Amino acid sequence: MVGPFHHHPPNKDRKLKCPLRQMHDVNRSAQTAVEDSERIFTELIHSIERSRSEVTQLIRDQEKAAVSRTEGRLERLERLEQEINDLRRRDTELEQLSHTHDHIHFLQSFQSLSAPSESTDKPDEPFSSLFSFDDMRESVRQLRDKLEDFCKGEIKKISDRGPGTTSCSIPISRVITNTDTEQPYSDHPDRFDRWCQVLCRESVCGHRYWEIKWSGSVYMSVSYKSISRKGGGDECVFGYNDQSWSLYCSSSRYSFIHNNIRTDLPVKSISRRIGLYVDHSAGTLSFYSVSDTMRLIHTVQTTFTQPLYPGFWVGSGTSVKLC
């Protein structure tokens, strides 16, 4: 199951190219994701701008209709005012005519004064029923609030998914440190209660490569999620059971551990940055010392039967950081 540290140069070169190819694939995939995101957001912006133009045009159309109705009201009011003036004038003339003693003149004049023309204007609609823009403004505000809430929710989903290489419960920039001080965490079935270990929340699938900076003494591991969490037995320690594989690093010793079998590695020194490469389907797990160059430390060829999760054991005063 465990391959030796020494490899023939061609095989070593081939193994070394795997994480390099993986990093290239990650960079290419990230660039594609950025370009697709930019394109989609640009389309979304254009769609919002079109909607804005449509709403603006709708408001202007409603404004034009409201102004037209108001102008019509003013014209009708002017006609009504003219009719009122005509009626007043007719009333005055009738009053004067009532005092005449010329009966023939009275009859001739009364006929023309007593029959005012009928108004052809329709009754005005109440002013309160004219179009109001308050509902329009409120609808646009609600649209904005719903769109913002939707975007926040979708962005959170994207953020929670995280990048496949380091999508763990610990943020990439966070350092894991053993301070020898018990933390006031409540009990949880997934928490290791005796060992200073942490298991990432999300699995690594397919081809994955990630790097870790370390100091002190650490176990850099991959594990099945089914590893035991409670108690102080070997079934809970990374590398000391058939559920996990670990590279142990300290200032004086480097070893690979799986199923409680420790293999000391004839390595004089290892960089403070370690790269881990997993090809789940091929059953390959490799550890690399990363500095100006990349050097293979150890590789494993096996069969993985479950998804793998990155994990860490940290000794007293030790820290690790996902890069």
UniProtKB/TrEMBL annotation:
SUPFAM superfamilies: Concanavalin A-like lectins/glucanases
Pfam families xrefs: PRY (PF13765), SPRY (PF00622), TRIM_CC (PF25600)
SMART domains linked to this entry: SPRY
Keyword flag Glycoprotein: no
Domain B30.2/SPRY: from-to ranges: 135-323
The UniProt record lists the keyword Membrane: no
Annotated protein name in UniProt: Tripartite motif-containing protein 16
Species of the source: Anabarilius grahami
